[in-house]
Predict the 3D structure of the following.
Amino acid sequence: MNRRVAIALVLILIFGAVRMPFERQLEAEHKAAYFHGAKLDLGLREQIGQMAFLAALSGFRALVADGLYLRAHALWERTEWGRMKLNFDGATALQPRCILFWDQAAWHMAFNASIAAYEDKTEPREVLRLKAQREYWKLGEDYLLRGIANNPDNPTLFDRLGFLYREKFKDHCKSAEIYARGAQVPGAPAYVKRFAAYELAQCPGHEREAYEQLRALYLLSEDEHVPTLLKWLGILQEKLEIPPERKIAIPAPSNP
Amino acid sequence: MTALPAATQHQVFSPARISAIASNTLLELVRLKVFYFMLLFAVLIIGSSAFTANFSFQERFQVLKDVSLGAMSIFTWLLAVLATAMLLPKDIEDRTLYTILAKPVPRFEYLLGKFLGVLLLLFVALALMSVVFVIVLYAREQTAVGEAARMVSVEELPAAIQQIRATTFNSNLLPGVGIIYLKAALCAALTLLLSTFASSSIFTIIVSVVVYFIGHIQPIAREAYLESATVAPLTKIFLALVSLLIPDLTALSLVDDIVVGNAIPLLLFAKTAALGGIYVSFYFLVGYFVFAGKEL
């Protein structure tokens, strides 16, 4: 080997040793910025999946993730739910900070695939169709939970999960808990706090707590005097037999 | 003895000579019709809309930005590797190198001029792609605003327009393009270094491409080398060599995060840019060191 090439090789090795600590620190800072300093509570599956994907496709992973997302969309149009899920798994693993991917994956599973499973004409036994439907709800829930684990600083997925518990699982207690957690996230829309109170109002044993929350919201600002809040306030005031002097006068709904 | 007139005195380092070589290199590369790739780029980003016609505006902008920035990354990388790998072999083959070096042009100036020519080419290419990208993004934004005006009530329109604007342009896109440029410059400098001792441009291109891909998994090798105490000695040596010889290209892959709307702090961007600059300078200087002793 040429003497100069050998010296160059040694120089590159020395440069490698010098830059190593700087690159490690930069990587840590990059990760902190990527996750906005959010503390993640990821399962092993998530960690291994992300590490492998991020490493293998770094540089082009946004592009590949989009490709998978587009394929998932095409598979949704063809109602190929299994293959659609595989593509969503890939897209979310490649871009775990993309809210849109988690949101759409969960939506298609819990709201589209689940209905298709329930209306599956090839399966005459209703109990099996109900079971399949519930499994798709759980898949939607899984996407949202993992999405939240990756994005605890974004309120959107809390909102979606609260909606899923409310609309599909009819679990108002869980829905209230998720909406309440979402309301704590900076940047959460004002309605998330109201939704937490509405759901709590339907969670057995928590009516008093819900009433106090609704009352506090009502007293907070006139912007909060929306019809649904007034409706629940009225219902709870009657149910909890609130003394007249503490009761808030609920205006009769105006007819259009 | 009278002194030579100032005009004929030989300067040890001449920016004019370097810029002459750089502009000639750029001209040569442009004559190779490398900018035809722009057509492909435009078709790619305009054509991406065909796949997203039924999508929401957030999805459409997400795909457009991913496809555009991803294509910018790929095209500038390919340009950097292919254009640089050809520089020296082509000059040797058509004897231009001997003609230039027979004149009082130091090898450092020759190599720097050639390298700057490639960097200029990358800059022009990236600037053109950025212009096409911004035009398409702006046109799509206007379309989305028009759709919103038709579908949303007057009270909700300002909020809808604000949401559309927030989804299309974000202040991180410019630093993102800057990082793409730095990454391409790093690849060009590395390819130049390889070509100073490589026997053929095919070898240079293959090694460059392999280094590029390994560069994206280098942090895993580095962490395994630094943190695992139980690995076999041979494996440890292998991991150390990968960590020390191969550049960490994930450090210059901020674009993947930028497209999903992550804000990159200025300090982090500055550190990343500094790392890119150090890599480029180092590889160029080592390349010159090898080239200076090369028998031509």
Remarks:
- DSSP finds twelve helices and no strands in chain B.
- The radius of gyration of chain B is 23 Å.
